[in-house]
């Protein structure tokens, strides 16, 4: 999978403040990526794309990489070791099976790590959920739900973390919630 860098931090900030619902698309053009989306296999992308999509909507620059903790350990270590210096603020890590990607990532950085268990094994993601969520005390992984909902929520949670120090992003997040509420019909 190719490296993808999307979104931007400062671009169109003033327009974003005036029209928060447009903030994402306008800001999702250029800039230093703030969120890294890592996955253990290119086959995880179908699920992890949900994180990238919601970050796009909110205009949060992100980079997507396949770095397996067991198949490409050197690539993984090198990426995570450099992540903070490169300007990343949150890392999302999705993996299936005996999923140690998020835990290994968290062990290598002080950045917050959000784990997404992927339902790629015969156990439908329950193995990945337990592997990701059951971190021994000392190295935290914020674990989301199995699969696409978890990936989407990882993107939203990453944005919420960044929004604490980014008023335009906070407004974009609020606009996202309003739009979500409006989209719920009163009757089926
Ligand atoms: C894990 O093994 C990956 O995160 C993926 O979910 C699973 C299967 O990988 P592939 O065999 O499809 O590459 O490491």
Can you put this structure into words, describing what you see?
The structure is a single chain. The chain is built from 8 helices and 6 strands, in the order E-H-H-E-H-E-H-E-H-E-H-E-H-H. By secondary structure, the chain is an alpha/beta fold. A 6-stranded mixed β-sheet has the order 1-3-2-4-5-6, sandwiched between helices. Helix 2 crosses helix 8, helix 3 (45-58) packs parallel to helix 7 and helix 7 crosses helix 8. 47% of the residues are buried. 5-O-phosphono-beta-D-ribofuranose binds next to strand 4.
List keywords for this structure.
188 residues; alpha/beta; 6-stranded mixed β-sheet; 8 helices; 48% helix; globular; binds 5-O-phosphono-beta-D-ribofuranose
Question: What is shown here, in short?
Answer:
The chain is an alpha/beta fold and 188 residues long. The chain has 8 helices and 6 strands. 48% of the residues lie in helices and 15% in strands.
Query: What is the helix fraction of residues, given as a range?
Result: 40-55%
Helix/strand order, N-terminal first: EHHEHEHEHEHEHH
Bound heterogens, unique? 5-O-phosphono-beta-D-ribofuranose
How much strand content do the residues show? 5-15%
Q: What's the average pLDDT? A: 89
Q: Detail the poorly predicted runs.
A: 8-27
Q: How many helices in DSSP terms?
A: 8
Round the Cα radius of gyration to an integer and report it: 16 Å
Q: What's the β-strand tally?
A: 6
Structural class: alpha/beta
Give, in spatial order, the strands making up the sheet with the most strands. Answer: 1-3-2-4-5-6
């Amino acid at each position: 999978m190719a490296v993808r860098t999307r979104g931007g931090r400062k671009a169109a900030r003033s327009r974003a403040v005036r029209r928060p619902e447009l903030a994402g698309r306008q800001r999702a053009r250029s800039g230093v990526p703030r969120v890294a989306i890592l996955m253990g296999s290119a086959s995880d992308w179908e699920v992890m794309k949900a994180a990238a999509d919601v970050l796009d909507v909110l205009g949060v620059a992100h980079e997507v990489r396949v770095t397996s903790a067991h198949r490409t350990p050197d690539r993984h270590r090198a990426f995570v070791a450099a992540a903070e210096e490169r300007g990343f603020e949150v890392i999302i890590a999705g993996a299936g099976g005996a999923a140690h990607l998020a835990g290994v990532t968290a062990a290598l950085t002080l950045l917050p790590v959000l784990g997404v268990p992927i339902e790629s094994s015969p156990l439908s993601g329950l193995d990945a959920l337990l592997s990701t969520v059951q971190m021994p005390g000392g190295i935290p992984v914020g674990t989301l739900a199995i699969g696409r909902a978890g990936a989407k929520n990882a993107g939203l949670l990453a944005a919420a973390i960044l929004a604490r120090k980014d008023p335009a992003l906070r407004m974009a997040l609020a606009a996202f919630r309003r739009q979500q509420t409006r989209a719920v019909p009163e009757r089926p």
